[in-house]
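re: ur question from earlier - yeah i can do the single chain one, its not a big deal. heres the input i used so u can compare w yours
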Amino acid sequence: MITKPYGSWKSPISGKSLVQNSLRLGQIQMSGESIYWTEGRPAEKGRTALMGYSHGELHEITAPENDVRTRAHEYGGGAFLCEEDATYYINNSDQQIVEVLESGVSRQLTQAPAYRFADMIRDVERNLLYAVGENHLDSTNILNCLLKVSISTGELHIIAQGHDFYSNPQLSPDGTQLLFLTWDHPKMPWDGTQLHLAGLNKEGDITGDQEIAGGITESIFQPCWDPDGSLYFVSDRTGWWNLYHYSDSEIKCILEKQSEFGLPQWVFGMSTYAVLNSGDLVAAYTDTSGSHLIRIDVKRGSFKNINVPYSTIDQVRGAINRIAFIGSTDSHPSEVVTIDLDTYTQSSLRKAAETKIEQHFVSSAQHISFETAPNEKTHAWFYPPHNPGYKAGPKDLPPLIVLSHGGPTGNSSGDFNLAIQYWTTRGFAIVDVNYSGSTGYGRKYRERLIGNWGIRDVHDCAAAANYLANQGWVDRERLIIKGGSAGGYTTLAALTFLNVFKAGASYYGIGDLTLLAKDTHKFESRYLDSMIGPYPDRKQLYLDRSPLFFADELDCPVIFMQGLDDPVVPPDQAESMVAALKKNGVPVAYLPFEGESHGFRQSSTIIKAIESEYYFYARIFGIEPAEPVEPIEIFNLD
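and the output i got, formated as tokens:
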């Protein structure tokens, strides 16, 4: 074993390792015996392919030039619908619906360039698709609605409008009713949604509409029909997202737990449970130890756990006697998994990455919690530095990277992440913080951030760093914070307003909250009303919490990564901060990436970003990398 300082160990993981044979596994659907899913491919300029598995064979449904992606709500999701005789997907280049028949023949179904589509379902009897529509004809007044689309002609007709947002259309087994969710500004879907039950006439138009659950303080998630005509949904009316059953105008909780069966609906097409047959469900829920899978017999009121090796479970789908989901562990990348519910035999259909890293190199996540306010704890996942070929000197302590996730209404899990292992195998410690406002710990935990964005999240990340330093596990003089999007804002705020961190990395982060309030997409345009306050009424709060206006107080080095095609956080946010730091003589680096939007998709970008970040820390902290790293320009560094 070689003795070398933390941060300078030779790692088996390179920047290229993060994208070689790596995929972003996305939404899953099942139809009969077939399973379908999307997979993002960084090596193919970030395009998303649509895959199918049937009769023991894996095949790609889309052609190599196709990119399956909707930009509805900007974040997308719900971009395809697969059935045994036909597939429908949204083509990224023009946002139109494409039909692919079982024979392989394809055609563009819609000719409506003003619209973006998502969340499609099929009405076989009426030969229609129902979908969410987002009309961008007037970019200053984007209109959302529910549409019916003629499969014969591609003609569109609005069947529901008037609310700011729509999602989750679900057709009843007899075809006479439609379920869907709505919400209105300034609420986000995890704040308050309404569950609608509407009648349909023979043309597929809505004839009556009643709200059966939800409200401005109740979040409804993933409504589904039971084959017997009753329905299920997830609600957080008790403070936790639990499963409910609706029948004969009566709502009953299926299984009350202080656990989360729901998720923040950032994208369309999310699923945490599957209806197998009348009165039988399989669901995933999360608690502080991770995800769990459970089978529920609703009619008998009984349940049993399904033992699986996965610490994170997502996209639960079911058909006949099988389920499929995306599962990952703390030591293996995510994979598409199917389970035969007669024998409970598990099979892996597709892995996100064929990692060559040996298990003894993996740093496993350790759940930690620490007090951040009286009688309030904050949760995080800690990854100590780990490389069996190296050790540090007896008095040496590792640099710590604090990860601040996006959202801010998001969540970090302890599942395997090769990018985290990139750092831990080099001798860095990592702590991935689920700061106040994160999901997975109940509504009360989420609501800690109401009015407090830029305060509670920032202090929670600092508290995580201080907790680990106080334990003697990390070097207090080499505390780093990094994050993307909203996590980038938390990063910049922590670097500006606190004297805890010694360096940081902002990935498409927000420097000026007033610009975000005035110049962002519809889905998030009123998000800050609850996180900070209504704009411009509370403009001073926005100014007070914007790192850009306090750049003179930022005196530690920062590296900025920014997509030049980002509609969520425009490049001028990063460029303004970089200019201020240059002027003030603070070491700063800026890497703009053409062709990248909000979140990096291309392999060349992903490689360049992480390797540049490592080079930046190495120069700032005097670390000697064990292998050559391509230099970048760092301003104001002697």
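The chain has a mean pLDDT of 94. not sure if urs matches, ping me
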